[in-house]
Amino acid sequence: MKNISIAIHGGAGTITRDSLTTEQDRAYRAALEEAVEAGYRVLEKGGTAVDAVEVAVLYLEDTPLFNAGKGSVFTKEGKHEMDASIMCGKTLGAGAAAGVRSIKNPVKLARAVMELSDHVMLSGYGAEEFAINHGLEFAPEKYFFDAFRYNQWAEVRDSNIFMLDHTENVDEKFGTVGAVALDKDGNLAAATSTGGMTNKRYNRIGDTPIIGSGNYANNKTCAVSCTGHGEYFMRAVVAYDVSCLIEYKGYSLQEACDEVVMQKLVAFGGEGGLIAVNTAGDIALPFNSEGMYRACMKNGEQPFVGIYKEWNKAN
Is 193 in contact with 81 (CB distance < 8 Å)? Predict the structure, then answer.
């Protein structure tokens, strides 16, 4: 059988064993396993890498455990503004949506932008109009409501503070979701989706919908999906930087990921991690934070699911 592999993430940050109850740990692991298995089934049946990453991210968007889709955090106005992107490593086609509201699954909108428009990124009401024109599903405000997220926002809504989901004074940790995959034809793809930062203002947009920063795929090198403090990932052009180290410097996948995440980002204060896969089916899951929600599967093996720091490679 030809190599097939998939990896997913559900956010990175100050995630320790002490920060999650046994029930929370079990719930996160179950959600991650379900999502990675759903994406893997697509690959196993001969589906494309693009299909696989979309399906995996859909699963993560549909659970309130993660800060994307249904679980998106509240903005300063008490609303939800979501970003997503997807990229095909074979064609270098890419699509992204930024600052959208009421879209049930932003990753579907990103794929529609990639396949049904002449553009790479659409934002705000224009992206929503595009979604309407192409029959994408919207959801009412109550669909996105989560009591914990609301309480999290209530703590800071009267201040100018914005809150990352991995802030230490938050009892639960949430974040961007993403997936990368290799299909039987040797093609790569990556998808990323997020609800952004709690109490964010001014239609703030992070790295998630920016091709090369939060998401990238190229059959010559690798597919990458990032999670962390977006401002740093944008400034470091993290996803593309990993690809460049492979293409121009001859780094292995793991070496490139470690150089960017464990050296470059750390050097100027960037916290987070990423998932990556190459055309050999190798998987890397580096992070410089206390933990990262992550899972992977390859070539019929049992899925790996991790949360904490003790294992961050897929060798």
Answer: no
Instruction: Assign residue 106 the CATH number of its domain.
Output: 3.60.20.30
One DSSP character per residue, 79-116 reads ---EEEEEEETTT--EEEEEEE-SBS-HHHHHHHHHHH
- Give the least confident one: 12-16, 35-39, 81-85, 138-142: 12-16
Read off the pTM: 0.91
Domain limits at 240? Answer: 5-314
Q: In angstroms, how far is CA 315 from the centroid of its own chain? A: 21
- State how far the Cα of 216 lies from the Cα of 222, in Å rounded to an integer: 8
Distance CA 102, CA 4 (A): 34
**Which residues, including other chains, have CB under 8 Å from residue 298's CB and lie 6 or more apart?**
3, 4, 5, 6, 281, 283, 314
Q: For the chain, give the number of residues.
A: 315
Reported as a single tens digit per residue, the pLDDT across 180-193 is 999 999 999 999 99
**Residue 274, both tokens:** 């990423």
Residue 261 CA to residue 254 CA, distance in Å, equals 10
Task: Please report the sign of the dihedral spanned by the C-alpha atoms of residue 154, residue 157, residue 161, residue 163.
Answer: positive
Q: Residue 3, CB half-sphere, CA atoms under 13 Å: how many?
A: 14
Residues that are catalytic: 176
- Structurally, the chain folds into a number of domains equal to 1
